[in-house]
Design goal:
Blueprint lengths: L2 H13 L8 E7 L2 E7 L5 H8 L18 E4 L2 E4 L12 E3 L12 H8 L9 H14 L5 H7 L10 H14 L1
Parallel strand pairs: 1-5
Antiparallel strand pairs: 1-2, 3-4, 3-5
């Protein structure tokens, strides 16, 4: 074995096992249920949720990290699911908009969005709700500026921003 080959083998060993190009098994806890998926490593988390698990509440708009419509929680923190590979969520906990309500009881943020008319077409809404609910978990009494900060990066083509801020502040009051 040449020196170059030995160095290449060492580098490969340091990188650990590789996946692909075929499918690989991924295990995630999605909305408190363990799910085993056979996916190609190139599959994004958004595609896995929507196409493999039929959780279509998570919306794909730009599919390039520019709008936050695809926001879900990864271990309780909001992430853009179009910007993450499903394989990187292996062994982790994902919460989608479908997992936010408790049975028939909507999350206070969901109720407040309805009461404050904080949506029009609704395409940005699941992502907005996920980031808003995460904000109230870490800051139960935010002011309007904190709400706007938490929703920075969420684009709403319908211009619902003032109603969204009012809804999140109302949800904080209710909590
Ligand atoms: S769809 Fe993911 S950021 Fe726009
Ligand atoms: S409600 Fe239509 S994009 Fe926000």
């Amino acid at each position: 074995m040449t020196e170059t080959t030995t160095a290449g083998a060492s580098a490969e060993a340091a990188r650990g096992p590789t996946a692909g190009p075929g499918t690989t098994t991924i295990t995630m806890t999605v909305n408190a249920t363990t799910r085993h998926l056979e996916l190609e490593p190139r599959t994004t988390l958004a595609e896995a949720l929507r196409d493999a698990l039929d959780l279509t509440g998570t919306k794909l708009a730009c599919d390039r990290g520019a709008c936050a419509a695809c926001t879900v929680w990864l271990n309780g923190r909001p992430v853009c699911s179009c910007m993450m590979l499903a394989i990187d969520a292996d062994g982790q906990a994902v919460t989608t908009i479908e997992g936010l309500a408790q049975g028939e009881a909507l999350h206070p943020v969901q109720e407040a969005f309805i009461e404050h008319d904080a949506l029009q077409c609704g395409f940005c809404t699941p992502g907005m709700v996920m980031s808003s609910a995460a904000l109230l978990e870490r800051n139960p009494q935010p002011d309007a500026e904190a709400v706007r900060d938490a929703l920075a990066g969420h684009y709403c083509r319908c211009g619902t921003y003032p109603h969204v801020v009012a809804a999140v502040l109302a949800a904080a009051e209710r909590k």
